[in-house]
Amino acid sequence: MSEKPSHIVIIGAGHAGGTAAALLRQYDFQGPITLIGEEPIPPYQRPPLSKAWLKGEADADSLALKPLEFYAENGIDFRPNVQVTAIDRQAKGLTLSDGGSLSYDIAILATGARPIRLPIPGADLDGVLELRTAADAEALKAALGPGKTVAVVGGGYIGLEAAASARSLGANVIILEREARILARVACETLSTFFQTYHEARGVQFELGASATGFAGKDGKVTGVTLADGRTLACDLVLVGVGVAPNEELAKAAGLECARGVVVNLEARTSDPSIFAIGDVAQRPMPIYENRMFRMESVPNALEQAKQAACAITGRPAPAGETPWQWSDQYDLKLQIAGYPFDADQILVRGDPTSNKFAIFHLKGDQLQSVEAINSPPEFMMGRQLIGNRKPVNASRLADTSISMKEVAA
Amino acid sequence: MAKITYIEHNGAEHVLDVKTGLTVMEGAVKNNVPGIDADCGGACACATCHVYVDDAWLAKTGDKSAMEESMLDFAENVEPNSRLACQIKMTDALDGLVVRLPESQH
């Protein structure tokens, strides 16, 4: 470190930004840290918002990554309700939405992603909701209740998790999916069918191949969803979960290289060596997939990249390459996914889906690329290791449940 | 409040007062104790909050669920007193709990 400690400004106080601040202190970074967040509260976990929190099983305290005092106690200047509106890379200065400005030696972009809004009539009616922030979740929770009907536009993980929570709160749920199956972009067909069947058995209705073309309303409040086939489905509220877009505009305007996300290298550094980008906003290389570039929307990804940036800044060795993973909880199902099925040429199922305990493996030749495990921790844990260590796998042994996962991987 | 002593693999001790109702994992994470990653935030989905419970306290921390047992089975350097810290909720009966952290969480 130089004689005068650098000033690090972290732009965005989500899971990635908050973790980067804490890790820099854990790694003994001594200089000033400023953490800028547009939300009113310090960094918190988003995953429970569609699950435990929505069902009333978690409170605000338990969502917070750290208590508010943590930031002051650790010399982190946390500034809520503020956005960075411009980066001047020449002067190393930031313009803030509250009229202030800041200079930085190192900036970390952790601006995340935002829910995509449907460009259809009625999208601004009261009761048309999205789910990203704690405030969104608060609004959704307030609108849900026994006997209410929620139309979920988009059959992705957010929609399915919210549907499961809504059912447990006694609400009726209709899921509208534009594609021919739910989870079409993120899971294989076996898993899509499994989840649909499971939700249907718990009272959720599905409309597949259904495009929402507008929202009907009365007195400014949503009353239904209009479909391309002309039908209007009545509802009390709508949850739109059709994917997110990276908040890359700030980086683009500053001339940083962007390609559906801010492009970074293996240490999370952007095309400007003084600026890092981490979390949902970053387009990053993945070593276990031949450094293929992609953008991931998951907590493990946010944590990994926070680690990469904090290590690079403090001169620590880079973290060991990770196997990406994510999870989803719906009803009593725990889905754990490791890896991505790039170039997979074989899909095999281990276990019986009707037992609600099985795993789907995606192989490329004799290498495991990805595993989707339902209520099957051994398959997930061992699968994740096999994806990471690139050990050749015998497919017929992998499909044989009489052979334990430890033996399969031995 | 109940006292927990976290002992890092390098011997560094962190003695903390943790609100009852929080988990042993939350007590560590909210106080920035290094060595407990807790990637999934307590969903019992990742096994990165592995701790060794001091023998004197093991019985008081209760039984492992099938899920925890199953996740732990695949963590590294598992011992009979291994637990996932996200699955131990702090109660007054656990006041004084001592847990040791493994060398790494992967």
Average per-residue pLDDT of chain B, rounded, comes to 92
| Assigned CATH architecture of chain B | Roll
Q: What is the quaternary state of this protein? A: heterodimer
Into how many domains do the coordinates of chain B divide? 1
List keywords for this structure.
heterodimer; A: 410 residues; alpha/beta; 5-stranded parallel β-sheet; 26 strands; B: 106 residues; alpha+beta; Ubiquitin-like (UB roll); 3 helices; 17% helix; globular
Question: How would you concisely characterize the structure shown here?
Answer:
Chain A is of the alpha/beta class.
Q: What would you note in describing this structure?
A:
The complex is a heterodimer of chains A (410) and B (106). With 410 residues, chain A is of the alpha/beta class. In chain A, the strands form 7 sheets. A 5-stranded parallel β-sheet of chain A has the order 3-2-1-7-19. A 5-stranded parallel β-sheet of chain A has the order 9-16-10-11-12, with helices on one face. In chain A, strand 5 and strand 6 form a beta hairpin. In chain A, helix 1 runs parallel beside helix 8. The longest helix of chain A has 16 residues. Chain B has a single domain, classed as Roll (Ubiquitin-like (UB roll)). Chain B has 3 helices and 5 strands. A 5-stranded mixed β-sheet of chain B has the order 2-1-5-3-4. Chain B is globular and about 30 Å long.
Topology (elements, then pairings):
The complex is a heterodimer of chains A (410) and B (106).
Chain A: E1 8-11, H1 15-26, E2 33-36, H2 60-63, H3 68-73, E3 76-79, E4 84-88, E5 93-96, E6 101-103, E7 106-109, E8 113-115, E9 128-129, H4 134-143, E10 149-153, H5 157-168, E11 172-177, H6 189-201, E12 205-208, E13 212-218, E14 221-227, E15 232-234, E16 237-240, E17 244-246, H7 249-253, E18 262-263, E19 275-277, E20 282-286, E21 292-294, H8 299-314, E22 325-330, E23 333-339, E24 346-352, E25 357-364, E26 367-374, H9 377-389, H10 395-399, H11 405-409
Parallel strand pairs in A: 1-2, 1-7, 2-3, 7-19, 9-16, 10-11, 10-16, 11-12, 18-20
Antiparallel strand pairs in A: 4-5, 5-6, 8-17, 13-14, 14-15, 20-21, 22-23, 23-26, 24-25, 25-26
Helix pairs in contact in A: 1-8
Chain B: E1 2-7, E2 13-18, H1 24-30, E3 50-53, H2 55-58, H3 66-72, E4 82-84, E5 97-100
Parallel strand pairs in B: 1-5
Antiparallel strand pairs in B: 1-2, 3-4, 3-5
